[in-house]
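Submission sheet (multi-component)
Chains listed below:
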Amino acid sequence: MDYVGLYPVWYEPGIGSGWIVGLIATVHVLFSHTAVGAALFFAYLAHTAYRRDQPELLDFIKRYGLFLLVFSYVLGSITGPGIWYSTTVASPRGISALIHSFVWKWATEWVFFVIEVVGVYMIIYLVGKVDRATHLRISVIFGLASYGTMLIIIGILSFMMWPGKPEWFTEGGYLNGFYGANTFAQLALRTAFMFTMTAVVGGIVAGAIKDTAFKREITRKLALLGMASAVIGGLLFQWYMATLPETAEVIAQNRLPEWFSLSLVVALSVIFAWFAATWLRPGLLTPALASAMTLVVLVFGLWPEETARESLRKPYVAGQYVYSNQVIARDVPGLGIRSEIPLLERQGFQHSQVFVPQRLKTVTAENAAEVGHSLALTTCSNCHSLSDTGMRPLAGYFGGNRDVAEIQVYLQGALVTGNTLYMPHIPLNDAEAFALASFIAGMNRTSPLHPEPRRVAVNATAATPVTQSQE
Amino acid sequence: MEAAMLQALRDPAGVPSHPVIFLVLGVLTWALHIAAVQVMLGASALTLFGAFKQDAHWRRLAAAMLNTAKVAVSVAIVLGVAPLLFVQVIYDPFWYTSNVLSARWVIAFIVLLIGGYLALYAFYYRNPDMRAASTRGAWHLVLSIVLMLVVGWIMHVLSVQMLLPEQWMQWYAPAGHIDPSGQQLHAYHPARFAFFILLSGAVTGLWLLGYRRYLMGREDGHPAEDPTYIAWLKPLALNLALAGGVLALAAGAVWMLSLPEKMAWFATSAWMGAALVALLAAVSFPRLLGARLDTGLWGYAPFALGAVALIVVAAAREALRFITLLAAHGYDALDYKLNLDWYSTVLFFVTFAVLGGVVLGYLLTVAWKAGQTKGVYVPSPGLTRLGQVGVLLLVVWIVQYFAVGFYVWAR
Ligand code: HEM
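Outcome: structure written.
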């Protein structure tokens, strides 16, 4: 018997593991982008302060730096490993694929992290204790190292969507995986929005400045930075979308919620209006308002962006070869990776998996629903919650259908064939399709999503999605 | 779990350099991680102790240790990331399974760590100068220490669960019924945890000797420093080192006596012997130095030796894992499939050694010297040149990133 190396599944009935990862990732993006942006902004401010001999700018750096230390470094440095830990438990083979291809890139990033951690404490604690040129040099080092971390992680994030070059599949090689149009588009996009976030969050500190003239100057600097970067970011977004693979484009057109682009446009407009207002009337800026704006960015900008990134790369979780449900979907001759689909077709899921208890290996009349639960955990739960809350609850897509045979027909038409664009090819054998259908039928029976039993027309050749169920 | 199953769990992408490199880096960086963790725990504990004292020396020490603890948490975290990376490169079947089976705790780890860190800062904001004012809100500090210990406990459980593949199935599907909640911590070894935690007494004692030496070395010389404080620190540090060492060794002995059968070989192994000798040497070294401790750079030597001892301990800990998994489960961490990638391997080592060496060398020297100078510190021209080279290297690094990137993109 050959095995497919699927790990145990962690399933969180409340909000689902997917959303937990998304939440941590969203706040981390806020913290880390703000930190990188602020680091560069600091270097600029320090430079101006020393050149124009304006010690009050340094004072600002010190205040913002202290705030940032807690806001970005404490929280950013923990949520960073936090994303890692959360994806480890939500998608072990996804993170594993990234780690094994990019371990040295991460290790290189780590060198920059160490520099950052040392640097941030020095910038803050050494104001006034070292000469100006030295302090400035430390700020520059800090800024460059911070940007270095961004440069590295972007390549890995892009690979998650789509390996940089198609040659990666045939030749392998870290460079082919890391660099591509999507890498640079994303880098440009994130660089722009990073400054937007810096400007928004910087307002929390700038709003508290007492000296009106100085407050005006800083507020206007932040407002200009914010407006320019928001506009540039909006334009770069178009480029970014153009570099996405075709499947992502199709999904973007069909599957992203309608509110997605609306939400981005609104978020950008609100941000722009906010900066325009504070540029005209710097007095408007208060820490409370700036905090509210930060929340707006978080909820209407970053959360949709993170969830869209998750949707766009469906059905894959990494490199267009690892499915979200952790199965390796295609050959990658460049790395000697073999698709696991043929093996699963031959042996079935239950016999191929390492973590299936003996009594659930073979489907019987008695254990069918429980085997189905096990299959649902392995093959669906990464994208569909099995309860009524969380990400795309599975029960919601079957319209309360309790007919095992009909559901089985759907599974075999749409999933076993691999005919659904945004869902993996899931080669359940007949017995397994029956088991999963039994589980889904049972779930539909108890789901409060469907108080009224209702049948859905699913025809035998239902290779097309059951859109009826979503009316 | 049969060997074939463990093999199947490995990532088919293989590893980009020989696995032994990851093994060695894992040991080295984990030793640094645990050193920072131990200094952090010890410094927090000393701060707490000082928080309830009126004595001026204790107040001063508490103030200093509070700052140490704050920085040490950051350092512990950033140094924890490296072994986190390396362990999952060559031990992925074990690390991922262990994590998933306790997934809720893995998520809790993040939340609790944030809580512990913020609690430490909350204490600091209430007590910005412990020398000048009496302690406020000590419970924040207690909370922080407790949360950090829970975080460490989670790490400990994850490390122990890795070693017990024969029990995984029972944890995941008790009596054959799958439980995907990840809500339990399944296996732990309190004596092992106690060993690593109690060792922080010893490590912190040696750290205090270094701190004391640092104070003695301030450029403006002894008169500015309070000699009674310097004198007061010495027995405290020595006793702490000794007491921590004795307690840790006692816990270690219990650990060795309670090893599960498949690991029992470790108790009498050369690895274990080497770790014992290294620890005994590190703890007794400052006493052997006697009066020399106050001359030259000797004051720093005990901590340096302590760091070496921790590397030996880390190597022994790794041997326990490597050999157990090999002998009892047929998993050889060194026969991982190779997909050599020269570019990224070389880029890392060059970045680490050259860029990291120059930039961190510059930063740490400036920090050090600035700390030893009263008033404004101006680096020597040589040191400044090092800083300029550091900036240049960073710029060169960024330029090569884009140059290589555009070349690959355009190819
Ligand atoms: C700040 C609170 C922390 C404490 C008190 C702590 C403590 C510990 C302890 C006691 C161990 C050894 C467990 C054993 O072998 O029994 C350990 C291992 C480990 N720690 Fe930490 N740790 C902390 C934070 C972190 C963080 C933030 C990370 C990651 C970013 C981390 C990464 C690791 C890793 C990866 C290991 C296992 C290494 C291996 O098994 O090879 N730790 N930690």
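Remark: Chain A touches chain B through 102 residues (CB under 8 Å).
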